[in-house]
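User: For a reading group we're discussing how well predicted structures match intuition. Take Cytochrome P450. Before you show the prediction, I'll give you the sequence so everyone sees exactly what went in.
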Amino acid sequence: MPVSEHQVLVLDPHGSDPDSEYRSLYERGPATLVDVLGVQAWSVSDPALLKQLLTDRRVSKDARLHWPGFADALAGWPLVLWVAVTNMFTAYGADHGRLRRMIAPAFSARRIVALQPAVETLVRAVLDDVEGAADDDGVVDLREHLAFPLPIAVIGQLMGVPEGHHEELRTVVDKVFATNLTADEAAVNTTALYGLLDRLIEAKRAAPGDDLTSVLITTRDGDGSALGESELRDTLLLMISAGYETTSTVIDEAITTLLSDAAQLAHVREGRSTWEDVVEETLRHSAAIKHLPLRFAVTDVELPDGRAIRQGEAILASFGAANRHPDWHGEDAHLFDATRPSKEHLAFGHGVHFCLGAPLARFEVATVLREFFARFPDAALATPRERLQRVPSLISNGHVSVPVRLRP
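Assistant: Thanks. Here is the predicted 3D structure of Cytochrome P450, as structure tokens, for the group to look at:
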């Protein structure tokens, strides 16, 4: 059935009420047509169907090859960067295998283990700054002073981004995930972002260091080929944005949840769950990425109800809704429960595009939670959770600010 014959659900660009949006998706079945800032796509919220499509060779992430709407998107879609980058995020088939093969060693288990002491040191240093940033009432914004600076410091150290550029990097990456920008505003931000990446590459070529940017510049595939110039800077964009923005959001959501639900915090303190359990349940319940743009049907793909996603139509992986689907985690799937026996989720993706940085993100968030609640055992939200403003994004979870009173 042609796309135009379906009723289309318009996704909220401000992401103000994801719970209601998820319910609307469930009511419409395993897959339904949605409007993503003017682009129509099939939102897939059923976890079984989503897993199937994420491993289906008939589904591609290469907009240039498999999306007839790509040229129109280039002309004025605010989220065009999400489908226009040339890195393993958008690659398909052998091209994806080549890029992932070249990048995977940078996230080897050995390298992540070696990084852990540095992460622990950074966490303690950032918590020192958190304590110093509190106002006269002992209140501090944890989004601004913890959830932002820690991941940007970790990824900055990993990638060799000078500390003086962290704030600039944060500003442009935040706008990549924002969905309340006009196409012109998004284009200006993309120009600024690439300017920053180009300066980083130039600096590392002139003076290589012990960092992943320097490694990627010199990396060669088995046939001796290097990353192309666009592939190099778009790979840096992928690693920096994923390493910063998504981890920042999970820290935000985890702390906000524990400070608004004493029973969940008690589960950890009394040994019924661990900090790692909290991390996994946060990833399931409040995934950093709610909806991930975009994939495309290489050929017609039949749906369980007899409808079909036609060749060339766009597909939106609705991870947030899938993770909370009652068919996967029961009727209480919408509730946060750190003691939940199964916390399976798709927060890091599934199949060949599974996130390479997942082990680092998990360790980072668990370390933050352990150290924060050890240092500030009586911390409390200074604003009720229901009054916290969500970030303006249909892509990301998280809050604009998280004011917390560190001590009574």
